[in-house]
Amino acid sequence: VAIFGNTQQKTLEVVYDVAGGRLGFGAGGC
Amino acid sequence: DEEDDDLHHFHTLHFTSLFPQSLCTPSSSFTPGSKQRSSTLQVVHRHGPCSVPHLTTPPSLAEILAADESRVESIQAKLAPSYEITRAGKRNKYKDRKVDLPVQPGRSLGSGNYIVRVGLGTPPKTLSLIFDTGSDLTWTQCQPCARSCYQQQDPIFNPSSSSSYSNVSCASSQCSQLSSATGNTPGCSTKTCVYGIQYGDQSFSVGFLSKDTLTISKSAVFQNFFFGCGQNNQGLFGNTAGLIGLGRDQLSVVSQTAGTYGKYFSYCLPSSSSSTGHLSLGRSRASGSVIFTPFASSSQGAASNSFYFVDIDGISVGGRALSISQSVFQAAGGTIVDSGTVITRLPPAAYSALSTEFQQQMKKYPVAPAYSILDTCYDFSNYTNTKIVIPTISFTFRGNAKVNLDASGILIAINGKQACLAFAGNSDSST
Asked: Does any CB of chain A come closer than 8 Å to the CB of residue B252?
């Protein structure tokens, strides 16, 4: 299994819309 | 146009910017008390200056990477086919295949984790908890620590000092849900439900399934929140008070607060351990600039119910798309997004393509020896006073969701002169 780790997630707004069945990424989250 | 392409395909930065500062610089994205952000918690790296003062020496990067490898081995062991159990409760045809969970004393579940502070009980007691999208059960160490508690920064939660605390009976549906949330069948002691959760490195927590009031902020208070009240807690959880589980299972915080927040949450992890990010429950900000990819369904059986799967369609380095067949990712069994794993792991063929192209575009810089699990490293000792230029890396997830990584997600600083590509390859193309 490949794993998208937390170093690569840095500064991105990572959005979990679990009910909607989707994952989002936004630039410049923090 | 070429200049424009260059701007988009390369990061220009000072090498020293890859290092955290010694003082905490909180991010402006977190505004405590804001009405719009009432369900938002501040996220800090548990070993950085924004965390509470340490009782022990923070681990070295080598120790963090060793712990990261342990976590990855644990996740991959959980998702191995031999863990599949049929609906009838019988082991499937792989029953004879042995799963070797890593047993490595001294390694923690993951030292590169981030923490949030929440309130538990009435009146609320503040606890620093590791937040983890790769597990479900929220637990904290509890008095009287009947068997064992490790040293933590916050006072250990005392159920007898909370007017809203109660134990959960063995006959409750929440007790039954522990099986999938923890992977272990719950126990029963004088009609009180007993949970046990063990991580891949043998760290564990055992105690009573309990319920009490969870306070995220003054306006975000959840009564009857189910959590583990740990009476026997051992492992390298640092100085934290426990863990908050953000997985998909029924006992996770996400599921327990679904009535209010609709199973919607988001976070931002800061660019360095000397800054802060946030964890928000609910739709706390406009999502206009957010691009979405559908969750992928897992073919990995019941043990995968906690994880968030996605599909990678492609990877680009410096604007150049890597030649990676889709079968490479499919053979690996999919991709999960995990807040607790530090370094992204890729199938061997994908990592090889990434590393090769990155080296090609970084050939002006002298190489440095490999470091731990990182094998593509550079010596920037002659660049401490000048800017360096590194290629961008972008991932395209299913649905044409292209995500450009921040520079802090591409290189990881090893010491004052060396930095490495912050990716690693799996050892086996099928795991």
From this structure: no
Q: Is B338 on the interface with A (CB under 8 A)?
A: yes
Per-chain mean pLDDT for chain B: 85
> Are B34 and B410 in contact, with CB atoms under 8 Å apart?
no
Say if B183 is an interface residue toward chain A (CB within 8 Å). Answer: no
Write out pLDDT tens, residues B87-131: 333 333 333 333 333 333 333 445 568 999 999 999 999 999 998
User: Do B409 and A7 count as a contact with CB atoms less than 8 A apart?
Assistant: yes
User: DSSP characters for B61-76?
Assistant: HHHHHHHHHHHHHHHH
Yes or no: say if B116 and B207 are a contact pair by the CB < 8 Å rule: no
B317: which 2 tokens?
């380095």
CA dihedral (A16, A20, A26, A30) positive or negative:
negative
Check CB contact under 8 Å for B294 and A15.
Answer: no
B139-141 and B242-245 strand pairing: antiparallel
Catalytic residues of B: 132, 338
Q: Distance (Å, rounded) from C-alpha B337 to C-alpha B315?
A: 16
CA-based nearest distance B135→chain A, Å: 14
Neighbour count for residue B385 (Cβ, 10 Å): 8
CA distance B207 to chain A (A): 29
pLDDT confidence of residue B18: 87
- If one compares B46 and B10, the residue with the highest pLDDT of the two is B10
DSSP code string of B258-321: HHHHTTEEEEEB-SSTTB-EEEEES--S--TT-EEEEPPPP-S-GGGTTSEEE-EEEEEETTEE
CB contact under 8 A, B336 and A1: yes
Q: Does B347 touch chain A (CB under 8 A)?
A: yes
Rounded to the nearest angstrom, the minimum Cα separation between B145 and chain A is: 32
pLDDT tens digits along B130-181? 989 988 999 999 999 999 999 998 999 999 999 999 999 999 999 999 999 9
Of B266, B329, B344, the CB nearest to A7: B344
| Rounded-to-integer distance, Cα B17 and Cα B25, Å | 13
pLDDT above 60 for B307: yes
B150 touches chain A (CB under 8 A): no
Helix, strand, coil fractions of chain A, as percent rounded to 5: 15, 45, 40
Q: Please report the beta strands in B137-219, taking only residues with DSSP state E, as ranges in sequence order.
A: 139-141, 166-167, 187-189, 192-198, 204-217
